[in-house]
């Protein structure tokens, strides 16, 4: 079988698996977030944190919950790293430096999982399992909670109430993430991923020398790393490491885990707003972008010119031979079109265009299908923008799902779409203009610029993957990327929740033949166009000077 | 005889009054074809551009410009490039960019000035009507004093006689007069204004042609209808509408994004070894920010209001025009809107043992004295079907006849000739008349009248008393005549997702028959003002926007409650005050056109926004390779248009960006083509034209400009 065919078949298998899980999982999540029952385990948790899960919150209260919870998580994670040397199971690693500890804490709380450290050389069992893995669950649950709050904003009318943050947080973790993670971890262990608390020991002999490696609760962290679109690898090599991602099957399974919740959430959305077809339209938009990007990626990676590349059957540099170009391309597109950032190959080694596709994927705001929760709310914001611009063309003031997009709504949506480009462009410009940050580049020219552009794009969009050449463990990058990750995660949430509150207060406008049909393929096309033009074009000059200059030169 | 038609609608069925002499809209005939009226554009005369040029320059004042954030950024860019050009006077490129940026701003101002200019002419005409008048004010002791019109206060009573200009807005308190309202409506036929009822309102600036009236002033000087009209058509009172504000916010945020993209570009460019001049960066910003829609947005709004003014409709706020586009329920008065103002005789139905010709003869005879439209239609039908002489009127009738005219009390008309008494009128009245005289009513008369009422018609009984005694001969079938083309119109509205509700005082059976014939979606029978109000509130509770027309004082609360309330100019001041639009032609059918104009306004706004944003793609492909092909030769592959040189590429993009504004001014003023169809069809079409067109057009335009520019030595 040719590698191209293998890639195509894996793509089809993946789509089939997602299609099978779409309905049951989407409907299940809708039930989870609409249910009025509490599990006993959940009651204990509410008691422990002193929350009243049945109190309805307006958007400011909901936001306060998120910020308080995330601030506490941030402090806890920072403290854990700073005190690592005194913790059991530290494997003898010292405390993490303040700037790196801040960066890592911000990174995991913001569901980014940017890593300026080497997992196997810096983080012991305690920090990995009690700190990072926990955040992998809860930061994902926070994203889902915000998405659900926005969906409730559309679904509810004449109330400002968006649900209860604590209930949404706990349910997302206990009823959605945990059960899937348990099953998923077993699948990964079956594939050969490790799950132990072994210390550093010799794992093999290579060309005369020995190699020492530590064990860890890798499979359990790996599963939530993908499922929660986190992306922080247990080891530096991330999903390219055989302990994390042993073979082609586990690789495909991990891609499946990444896409599982973000796609199914569109079903949850359709279910909760009482119109499944609206959910399909959003899913179709996501799928269109994802499939197009994947096909383009495979094309540029398989067909790239150059004697060495042609001899290898494509751009194999930086890719694992056990995955090949096809599976690596699917993984790279998936990880950057979601807020995951896990990698099974090295994006910096992709062709110029290939690297550009990974960047563009993040720049679109990671909405196809995007991170757990964040993908859905990001896409819904873009739908609002699309409805606003083009909806006028049907001769009515814009409305989406029966809610009018007036001055207040568009103000909030406009702020949302401003944040990430502002963060990416301003910080990249500062890094390029200042004398020292440029020293971190490994490459010169367009590729060097791409390293820094990629870093801030990844940070601001809460992706977490890196263009590996950059040495990001400097005070400048640890601090600025840390800030960018926090701002890029929580500022948009402010606007999303305010928007949700404003939508929930509205009385819905009934749909008539004069209403823009947002569940039709035409709208899907319109939405794709809006996303590409509004967010894509913002980065055109920057992309031209990085990946495009490189890609066109080849 | 009262001239209050609306009350007719509240009469019981089977007791037709046939009172009125005028349908509400008939005293101000419309100049527009209502059935086939389409929202078309006003004419656009290129000379308007030239005439408005001085205004366009006046608007360059930054204090004015700052209200349109997108164009303000362009103006700042123009200043920056001009300063740079002055510093380096030998740089022809800098000068050219500066000039074209200034032109971009001027073109934007020109669009707005032209839109405003079209209202100015109308305002001037109005001002002529608003000459200072001297009012004859009644003093409390019954005397009269002469005061300037500007000193009148609300509640003052003033006298106007033939030839006087009415000094201010008010209601006729006493008397009846014919008034020339051509100063406002443009319609030269005089209208009747009289105290009481729903035709009591008079407008300052109009002229009394005959008789004497006493007017109670209802508006302060300076706030009169004509003052508001002048402000409206001049655009002085124009406030940004909610959707316009929202769109401005989005445009401003896109401007910020693109500003950021360009400002941050310099460090990247420096790193790439291709530092850019401030002139080129400014040109890039101006090309990327949504200047096309930013330049035309205000003109689109003004032109939308103007399209209403051209149809003699005054919108008191732009918000109402926008709301018109969103309307999903139309409340239409049956009479005058759906049906012709008057019922007409359609058939003579005899009772058993009588021929139709006999009924016709008696009906005609008894109607000769009935001057109501219904009465005349009976005579006309009899003449037409049974060949009575057309000229034969009362005069041609046998001598010694005693004519009995129709009154609202008797509800009958007729004639007594040579011992023969003929009567026709409301069922109840005629039956009573026959029975009073000891006659019997034929058994089938009841069935006949019921059948007619059920079919939506109005039965009139014809009876006679002669040698054979008093008896009923038959029934005249009066029919509401549905205006031509209404069914198709409602069909269109349905396709647009708009529900039509017919409001009538008729009983449910009659109402249903007419509703079915006209093809409306729903009807409200035996409607009282309270019912109307309740209906509006019910629709609004379901999230629907409601539009209605009204003229009576009792319509005022409903007009105020409706999202679009169109008051008839013939109506009372209370109605005109309550509504947010006034139709000077007093044509209730125009409500449909108003909705279409509202939709067209929104579509134009959306179409040009889409076009403007889609334009950016081509501009990137022109400018980015021009900026960076030196540093990275590979980027020259992005120059897919094959533009001649970096300078000509940037210049072409800037020139295109400026010219497209002027090119689209006519479209902004006329509004995009509008046809009533479903949202799906409309979106597909507009996305194709303005979305795809917006992507492709600039590629062609920029290439053409580049071809022209490259013929100039030193550029190509």
Automatic annotation (TrEMBL), chain A:
Main location: membrane
UniProt key word Transmembrane: yes
Sorted UniProt keywords: Cell membrane, Ion transport, Membrane, Potassium, Potassium transport, Transmembrane, Transmembrane helix, Transport
Function: Part of the high-affinity ATP-driven potassium transport (or Kdp) system, which catalyzes the hydrolysis of ATP coupled with the electrogenic transport of potassium into the cytoplasm. This subunit binds the extracellular potassium ions and delivers the ions to the membrane domain of KdpB through an intramembrane tunnel.
HAMAP family from the UniProt entry: KdpA (MF_00275)
NCBIfam families tied to this protein: kdpA (TIGR00680)
Protein name: Potassium-transporting ATPase potassium-binding subunit
Automatic annotation (TrEMBL), chain B:
PROSITE patterns: ATPASE_E1_E2
Annotated catalytic residues: 333
Chain sites annotated for binding ATP: 370, 374, 406-413, 424
Record EC number: 7.2.2.6
Keyword Transcription regulation: no
Keyword Cell inner membrane: no
Biased composition (Basic and acidic residues): 1-13
One Pfam family here: Hydrolase
GO terms assigned for molecular function: ATP binding; ATP hydrolysis activity; magnesium ion binding; P-type potassium transmembrane transporter activity
Purpose: Part of the high-affinity ATP-driven potassium transport (or Kdp) system, which catalyzes the hydrolysis of ATP coupled with the electrogenic transport of potassium into the cytoplasm. This subunit is responsible for energy coupling to the transport system and for the release of the potassium ions to the cytoplasm.
HAMAP family reported for this sequence: KdpB
Protein name: Potassium-transporting ATPase ATP-binding subunit
Organism, as annotated: Streptomyces palmae
This protein's encoding gene: kdpB
């Amino acid at each position: 079988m040719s590698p191209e065919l293998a890639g195509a078949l894996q793509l089809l298998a993946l789509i089939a698996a997602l299609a099978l899980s779409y309905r049951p999982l989407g409907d299940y999540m809708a039930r989870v977030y609409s249910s009025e029952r509490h599990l006993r385990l959940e009651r204990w948790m509410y008691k422990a944190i002193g929350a009243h899960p049945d109190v309805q919150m307006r958007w400011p209260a909901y936001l306060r919950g998120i910020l308080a919870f995330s601030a506490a998580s941030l402090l806890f994670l920072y403290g854990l790293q700073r005190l690592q040397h005194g913790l059991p199971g530290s494997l003898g690693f010292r405390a993490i430096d303040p700037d790196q500890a801040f960066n890592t804490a911000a990174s995991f709380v913001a569901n980014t999982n940017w890593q300026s450290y080497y997992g196997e050389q810096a983080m012991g069992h305690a920090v990995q399992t009690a700190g990072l893995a926990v955040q992998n669950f809860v930061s994902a649950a926070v994203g889902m909670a915000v998405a659900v709050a926005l969906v409730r904003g559309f679904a509810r009318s004449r109330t400002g109430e968006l649900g209860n943050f604590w209930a949404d947080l706990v349910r997302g973790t206990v009823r959605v993430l945990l059960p899937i993670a348990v099953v998923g971890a077993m699948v990964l262990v079956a594939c050969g991923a490790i799950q132990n608390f072994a210390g550093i020991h010799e794992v093999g002999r290579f060309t005369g020398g020995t190699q020492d490696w530590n064990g860890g609760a890798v499979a359990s962290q790996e599963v939530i790393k993908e499922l929660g679109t986190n992306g922080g690898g247990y080891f530096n090599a991330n999903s390219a490491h055989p302990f994390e991602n042993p073979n082609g099957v586990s690789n495909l399974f991990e891609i499946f885990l990444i896409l599982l919740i973000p796609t199914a959430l569109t079903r949850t959305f359709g279910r909760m707003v009482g119109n499944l077809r609206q959910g399909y339209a959003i899913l179709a938009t996501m799928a269109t972008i994802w499939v197009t990007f994947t096909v383009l990626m495979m094309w540029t990676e398989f067909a790239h010119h150059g004697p060495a590349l042609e001899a290898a059957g494509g751009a194999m540099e930086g890719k694992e031979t056990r995955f090949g170009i096809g599976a690596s391309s699917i993984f790279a597109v998936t990880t950057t079109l979601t807020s995951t950032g896990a990698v099974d190959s090295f994006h910096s080694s992709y062709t110029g265009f290939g690297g550009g596709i990974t960047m563009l994927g993040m720049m679109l705001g990671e909405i196809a299908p995007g991170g757990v929760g964040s993908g859905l709310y990001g896409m819904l914001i873009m739908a609002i923008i699309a409805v606003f611009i083009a909806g006028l063309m049907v001769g009515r003031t814009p409305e989406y799902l029966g809610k009018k997009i007036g001055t207040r709504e568009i103000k909030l949506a406009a702020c949302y779409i401003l944040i990430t480009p502002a963060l990416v462009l301003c910080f990249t410009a500062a890094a390029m203009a200042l004398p020292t940050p440029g020293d971190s580049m490994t490459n010169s020219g367009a590729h060097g610029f791409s390293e820094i552009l990629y870093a801030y794009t990844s940070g601001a969009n809460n992706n977490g993957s890196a263009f590996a050449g950059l040495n990001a463990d400097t005070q400048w990058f640890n601090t600025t990327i840390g800030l960018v990750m926090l701002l890029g995660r929580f500022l948009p949430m402010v606007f999303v929740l305010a928007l949700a509150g404003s939508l929930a207060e509205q009385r819905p406008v009934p749909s008539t033949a004069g209403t823009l049909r947002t569940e039709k393929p035409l709208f899907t096309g319109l939405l794709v166009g809006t996303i590409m033009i509004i967010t894509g074009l913002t980065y055109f000059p920057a992309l031209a000077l990085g990946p495009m200059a490189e890609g066109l030169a080849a | 005889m009262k001239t209050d038609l609306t009350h007719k609608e509240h009469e019981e069925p089977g007791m037709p009054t046939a009172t009125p002499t005028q349908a509400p809209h008939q005293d101000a005939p419309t100049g527009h074809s209502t059935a086939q009226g389409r929202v078309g554009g006003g004419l656009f005369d290129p000379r308007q551009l030239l005439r408005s040029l001085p205004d366009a320059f006046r608007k360059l004042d930054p204090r004015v410009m700052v209200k349109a954030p997108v164009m303000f950024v362009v103006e700042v860019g123009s200043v920056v490039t001009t300063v740079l050009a002055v510093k380096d006077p030998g740089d022809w490129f800098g000068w050219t960019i500066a000039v074209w940026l200034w032109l971009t701003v001027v073109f934007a101002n020109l669009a707005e000035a032209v839109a405003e200019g079209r209202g100015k002419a109308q305002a001037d005409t109005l001002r002529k009507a608003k000459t200072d008048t001297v009012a004859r004010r009644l003093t409390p002791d019954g005397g009269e004093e002469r005061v300037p019109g500007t000193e009148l206060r609300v509640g003052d009573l003033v006298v106007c006689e033939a030839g006087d200009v009415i000094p201010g807005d008010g209601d006729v308190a006493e008397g009846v007069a014919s008034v020339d309202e051509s100063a406002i409506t443009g319609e030269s036929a005089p209208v009747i204004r009289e105290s009481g009822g729903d035709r009591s309102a008079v407008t300052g600036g109009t002229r009394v042609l005959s008789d004497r009236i006493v007017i109670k002033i209802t508006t302060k000087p300076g706030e009169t209808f004509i003052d508001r009209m002048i402000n409206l058509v001049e655009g002085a009172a124009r406030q940004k509408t909610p959707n316009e504000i929202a769109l401005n916010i989005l445009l401003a945020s896109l401007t910020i994004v693109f500003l950021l993209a360009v400002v941050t570009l310099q460090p990247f460019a420096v790193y790439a070894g291709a530092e850019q001049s401030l002139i080129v960066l400014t040109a890039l910003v101006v090309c990327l920010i949504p200047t096309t829609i930013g330049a035309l947005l205000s003109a689109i709004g003004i032109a939308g209001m103007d399209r209403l003014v051209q149809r003699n409709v005054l919108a008191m706020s732009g918000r109402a025009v926008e709301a018109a586009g969103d309307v999903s329920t139309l409340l239409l008065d049956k009479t005058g809107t759906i049906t012709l103002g008057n019922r007409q005789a359609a058939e003579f139905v005899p009772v058993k043992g009588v021929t139709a010709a006999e009924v016709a003869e008696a009906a005609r005879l008894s109607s000769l004295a009935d001057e109501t439209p219904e009465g005349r239609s009976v005579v006309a039908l009899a003449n037409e079907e049974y060949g009575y002489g057309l000229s034969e009127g009362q005069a041609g009738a046998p001598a010694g006849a005693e004519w009995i005219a129709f009154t609202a009390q008797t509800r009958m008309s007729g004639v007594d000739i040579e011992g023969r008494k003929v009567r026709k009128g409301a069922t109840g009245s005629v039956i009573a008349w026959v029975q009073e005289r000891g006659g019997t009513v034929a058994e089938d008369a009841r069935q006949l009248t019921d059948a007619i009422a059920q079919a939506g018609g109005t039965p009139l009984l014809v009876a006679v008393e002669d040698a054979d005694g008093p008896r009923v001969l038959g029934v005249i079938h009066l029919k509401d005549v549905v205006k031509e083309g209404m069914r198709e119109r409602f069909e269109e509205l349905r396709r647009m997702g708009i529900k039509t509700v017919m409001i009538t005082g008729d009983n449910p059976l009659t109402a249903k028959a007419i509703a079915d014939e006209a093809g409306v979606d729903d009807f409200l029978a035996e409607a009282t003002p309270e019912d109307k109000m309740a209906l509006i509130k019910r629709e609004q509770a379901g999230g629907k926007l409601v539009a209605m027309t009204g003229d009576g004082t009792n319509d005022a609360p409903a007009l105020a409650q409706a999202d679009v309330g169109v008051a008839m100019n013939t109506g009372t001041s209370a109605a005109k005050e309550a509504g947010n639009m006034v139709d000077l032609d007093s044509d209730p059918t125009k409500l449909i056109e108003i909705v279409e104009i509202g939709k067209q306004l929104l579509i134009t706004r959306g179409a040009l926004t889409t076009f403007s944003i889609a334009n950016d793609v081509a501009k990137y492909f022109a400018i980015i390779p021009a900026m960076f092909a030196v540093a990275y030769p590979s980027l020259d592959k992005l120059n897919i248009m094959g533009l001649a040189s970096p300078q000509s590429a940037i210049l072409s993009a800037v020139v295109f960006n400026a010219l497209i504004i002027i090119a689209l001014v006519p479209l902004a003023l006329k509004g995009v083509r509008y046809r009533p169809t479903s949202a799906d069809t409309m979106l597909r079409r507009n996305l194709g034209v303005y979305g795809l067109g917006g992507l492709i057009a600039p590629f062609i335009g920029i290439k053409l400009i580049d071809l022209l520019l490259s013929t100039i030595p030193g550029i190509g």
